Amino acid sequence: ALSSSGMSSEIRLQTLILVLTLAWHRASCASVSEHLSAGSDEDANELARTRRAACSEGDCKNGGICWPGAVTSSTPPCLCPEAYSGTDCTVRKDFCSSTSGGGATRASPCQNGGTCSNTDTSPWYHCSCVPGYTGTNCEINIDDCASKPCANGLCSDLVNDYSCSCFTGWEGRNCNINHNDCPTGACLNGGRCIDGNGTFTCDCTDTGFAGDRCQINIDDCASKPCANGLCTDLVKNYSCSCFTGWEGRNCSVDTDYCLSGPCQNGGVCSDGNSTFTCDCSRVDFQDDTCSSKIDDCASSPCQHGGRCIDGVRSFTCDCSATDFNGPNCQSRID
User: Fold this and answer.
1) What is the superkingdom listed in this entry's lineage (predicted)?
2) Which of 92, 175, 201, 229 could bridge to 170 as Cys pair (CB 3.0-4.6 Å)?
């Protein structure tokens, strides 16, 4: 069986033979003309009669010519063009047939499932190619990757099709869909997942956590916010346990122990370090909070039966019922 390339070679060979034969015919005619000029009229007439007996002008159809060389019993009467055969060049050759003259087989020139049809011009046949192929004999697989359809991947050419091998992070027929690389629960503790190219990152802003997946609780006590107390780390927060005498968010406010008014009865309060003192010197009270009334008569300062009258950090003696006088009824009246 002949391949399509073999059939094309055969056609080119036949064309070459025809061209060489015509050239030989011209040369032969010139030689014969010279010979007839030099030879006898009898030889010329004999050659003409022999050719006329074998083939006359108009016998050869479809562009065929009478055989140009010496005529013998085995010489075909007509030299036919490559598309025709037969005694008078009237048999149209079927270039699409799987068989040729003499029963020899040859393959259809159309490859890859192409449909062959005979034509009236060289190369005397036409191939209608199936999708995906082109060329005279449908021998060329069309490169479906030529248009670069794979946006983010490598293209493999198929028959009337292509296949994309996507780069990491891309998917879809043409590798133009960014794959969602954020799996469920990728970012912890309220972190926001940001899809990347084949990977992801976590935005831990305002969560109180850090780390590639927001898995680390940020130590809010690292900056030592509690000025006069102990810090306890919370989530995005902290708590201060203040030392005695301090208060406020950061234990930076000195506690005012006089604010509650601990000094009674007009005593004057003085705030101290974690304590207070009451000045009772200007009132008739005593003790830590000026809560105890001072009894200036407790020591019985009035003598000889004088009556003691308690005052403010003082006393007076009423000596009227006695025979004595003086501040303490200590002097007898003469």
Assistant:
1) Eukaryota
2) 175
Residues 128 and 161 in one domain: no
Q: Is residue 312 part of a domain?
A: yes
Kindly report the average pLDDT of the chain as a whole number.
Answer: 84
Tally the domains of the chain. 4
Question: Quick one: DSSP state of residue 103?
Answer: G
Contact criterion met (CB below 8 Å) for 227 and 241? no
Q: If we measure between CA atoms, which residue out of 30, 48, 87 comes closest to residue 64?
A: 87
- Work out whether the CA dihedral 36, 37, 41, 42 comes out positive or negative: negative
Q: How many whole angstroms separate alpha carbon 328 and alpha carbon 303?
A: 6
Same domain? 115 vs 154: no
Q: Is 73 exposed, middle or buried (0-12, 13-18, 19+ CB in 10 A)?
A: exposed
The domain containing residue 269 runs over which residues?
A: 256-294
**Residue 35's pLDDT band (cuts 50, 70, 90):** very low
Tally of CB atoms within 10 A around 107: 13
Q: How far apart are CA 19 and CA 13, in angstroms?
A: 10
User: Which has the minimum average pLDDT: 5-19, 90-104, 210-224, 263-277?
Assistant: 5-19
Q: Is 208 exposed, middle or buried (0-12, 13-18, 19+ CB in 10 A)?
A: middle
Looking at the fold, whether 48 and 166 belong to one and the same domain comes out as: no
